Amino acid sequence: MQLNRPFATVTPTLDGDVLAVLATSDVTFTITQVQRILTTASGEGIRKVLTRLTAQGVVLHDQVGRTNTYQLNTEHLAAEPIIALSRITATFLNRLERHLEGWGDALKYAAVFGSAATGRMTLDSDIDLLLVRASDPEDRNDNADPDTWDQRVTELGRLVTAWTGNDGRVVEYTQDEIRAAASAGEPLLNDVAREGLTVAGTRAWLNTQLRPIGKTQRNRNA
User: Fold this and answer.
1) Selecting from 3.40.1080.10, 3.30.428.10, 1.10.10.10, 2.60.40.10, what CATH number does the domain 6-85 have?
2) Are 212 and 182 within 8 A, CB to CB?
3) Fold designation for 89-221
4) 170 and 153 in contact (C-beta within 8 Å)?
5) Tally of helices (H runs) and strands (E runs) in the chain
6) How far is the C-alpha of 145 from the C-alpha of 170, rounded, in Å?
């Protein structure tokens, strides 16, 4: 699936993209406003979709002067699943957060990065996940031995695929390793710091670990 095009999981047509726009807000939209968001769709195509959805009752149509406006009918029986589908990225991130809560102190940080985080997914895109594991043995409980950790990572990849249909690609670091990689200016960590979506730990903690990236860049610019 494409997290950035949630309705494509049930319909490949423009109808889904238009519904995704209408479901993002309680305000009304004109055809021009919808087209500004759906940059590859024609105004005529959007008009036909809105006319069809209005006939189904799921979209409310009004006319202010010569301007036609459209709004999702939130009282429609289909509104609840439409809104739920439009929020599929948030649902995915929430599921990840809840699942990773059970990993305990052994997991210091986790984030989704790459196309799933930036809204540029295609059907063939992997879902990239960064996991940072504690280096200090005191932060590891009995359930976080190497075998248990590996089993959890394998299960995480399976769940991501089950939830989305996309391959889950997990990149692992220990806390010591991520500091060393940051000192070396690892580009992947720059991407995570700039665009990653945190699902375990805090961004402040990650920034503390990645401070050497900034120092390296300043030294190069000096």
Assistant:
1) 1.10.10.10
2) yes
3) Beta Polymerase; domain 2 (3.30.460)
4) yes
5) 11, 6
6) 18
Domain ranges of the chain: 6-85, 89-221
- Relative to beta strand 197-200, strand 107-113 is antiparallel
Please tell me the distance from the alpha carbon of residue 35 to that of residue 132, in angstroms, as a whole number: 41
Helix, strand, or coil (residue 186): coil
Task: Give the dihedral sign, CA 147/98/11/125.
Answer: negative
CA atoms within 13 A on the CB side of 164: 33
20's tokens: 């995704």
In this structure, what is the dihedral angle of CA atoms 174, 180, 186, 192, given to the nearest 10 degrees? 40
For 20-34, write each residue's pLDDT tens digit. 999 998 899 999 999
How far apart are the C-alpha atoms of 69 and 60, rounded to whole Å? Answer: 8
Cβ-proximal residues to 81 (8 Å cutoff; 6+ apart), any chain: none
Instruction: Give the helix/strand (H/E) hosting 21.
Output: helix 14-22
Report pTM: 0.86
Quick: pLDDT tens for 174-218: 999 999 999 999 999 999 999 999 999 999 999 999 885 545 444
Closest CA to 175 of 159, 189, 194, 195: 189
